[in-house]
Write a structure and sequence with these properties.
Number of domains: 2
Mean pLDDT: 86
Largest sheet: 6 strands, parallel
Low-confidence stretches: 43-48
CATH architecture of the largest domain: Alpha-Beta Barrel
Shape: globular
CATH class of the largest domain: Alpha Beta
Number of strands: 10
Number of helices: 16
Strand content: 5-15%
Helix content: 25-40%
Distance between the termini: 48 Å
Structural class: alpha/beta
Length: 415
């Protein structure tokens, strides 16, 4: 590693960071350097992002401090027994890269994670040193997201929150059994204990800032976590229930889902094939239903196949739930409350708000609803309008083929 130059290290450690999905920058405080002081900003479009070929949104400067690790988690390509090329940045090198990339307008912030070297405390000290140097020595006001290590001293994790906009601690796998089997060196109680400490610090210092302006900020963009999907036997129902529990107990901003990717020289206990990326997409849609559409976790889990516990891949969870609970429909767009309208497949939050605003002045017709949705064919069986009642559709046993998205053959060189 000592013979690698900075460009070679960057190539290795930026590639090693692509498996971290939790790089969103939403929710932070507004800072800028318009007054001639400091460097960097979180305003405007926020963090610059790139979109990977598999659809993940990743930060342009998203790196590991090192891909060396003393742990041997079966699913991790950077595990101790993995045959990959290793590299390691010094804290000063990460600071230099961040500032140089920012001055060239390549990035708006830093996403920093790391394998564990020497010990969790030593690694956490190195991560904190990067953020502290950027903030205190260079007055960097851009976005910083730090992946923290649950086994590290709580005081080090606390220091990370004082310098970072967001901190995250990965729960890794959805079930205790999966983590015990695939990452025996990691502990659910330690992971959740660290997440609880972060939540407490966010709440305590948030309350302190309401009373004292001089009180320090602590992770103003909150905390997030990430789960690997498809590495163990957890069903979509298990994952949904786990995510709901994490949101409730730790007040997380986001739970990210990362489809398991087969790795070189993989352990025999791992699946031979990756799960379909559509499964990851359906879990994000389920997450959205819980966060913004007032679905309970048990309701979202009801959209899964009762035999397998898996969400259907050909239709979205909201439509799957509606097809399973046909007795809740049709919904009258001119009379139904907001929570009932949010259950109608094809109607989003903006569409529902527009319906509620418009119907105060006149009764809505089907054509009015059609202007608010991308597919009126998907919506029609589930609603009643001034000039529409789904008499012929309401009792059809073969409704699913009519409302499911049509499969199309894409053309590579279409005009």
């Amino acid at each position: 590693m000592a013979q690698l130059d900075l460009r070679q290290k960057l190539a290795i450690l930026a590639d090693a960071a692509k498996y971290d999905a939790s790089c969103s920058s939403s929710g932070t405080t507004r800072r800028n350097s318009a007054g001639g002081k400091g460097i960097g900003s979180t305003e405007g479009m926020g963090i610059c992002h790139a979109y990977a070929p598999d659809g993940r949104c990743i930060s342009l400067l998203k790196i590991l401090l090192t891909n060396s690790c003393v742990f041997d988690c079966h699913y991790c390509i950077n595990r101790k027994s993995s045959n990959v090329r290793r590299a390691r940045f010094t804290p000063d090198e990460v600071v230099t890269l961040t500032l140089d990339f920012y001055r060239r307008n390549y990035i708006e912030g830093l996403f920093l994670s790391s394998g564990i070297i020497r010990s969790p405390n030593y690694t956490m000290e190195q991560i904190v040193r990067v953020a502290q140097s950027l903030r205190e020595e260079h007055d960097f006001r851009g976005y910083i997201h730090l992946k923290t290590i649950p086994d590290a001293d709580p005081e080090l994790v606390h220091q990370a929150g004082l310098f970072a906009d967001r901190v995250s601690i990965n729960v890794e796998l959805p079930t205790v059994a999966g983590l015990t089997r695939l990452a025996p060196e990691k502990s659910v109680p330690r992971i959740e204990g660290a997440m609880r400490d972060v939540r407490t610090a966010i709440e305590d210092l948030g309350d302190a800032r309401k009373r004292y302006k001089a009180a320090p900020k602590f992770a103003p963009a909150g905390q997030s976590t990430q789960m690997i999907v498809g590495a163990d036997a957890a069903t979509d129902g298990d994952i949904i229930q786990r995510a709901s529990g994490l949101y409730g107990r730790f007040n997380l901003r986001r739970v990210y889902y990362s489809a398991f990717s087969p790795i070189p020289d993989a352990s025999a206990v791992l699946p031979l094939r990756r799960p379909p990326l559509m499964r990851e997409h359906r879990l994000y849609q389920s997450d959205w239903l819980m966060r913004f559409y007032d679905y309970r976790a048990s309701e979202v889990a009801d959209a899964a196949d009762p035999a397998t516990g898996m969400l259907p891949l050909d239709i979205d969870p909201k439509l799957a739930w509606a097809l399973r609970f046909r007795d809740r429909f049709p919904v009258d767009v001119n009379r139904a409350p907001r929570e009932a309208l949010l259950r109608v497949p094809g109607l989003g939050i903006k569409a529902v708000d527009a319906i509620l605003a418009t119907r105060r002045w006149r009764r809505l017709r089907l054509a009015d609803v059609a202007r608010l949705t991308a597919s009126i064919a998907k919506v029609r069986p589930f609603l009643v309008a001034e000039d529409w009642r789904p008499v012929a559709l309401a009792d059809r046993a073969d409704l699913r083929p009519l409302v499911a998205p049509k499969r199309e053959q894409l053309e590579l060189f279409a005009a």
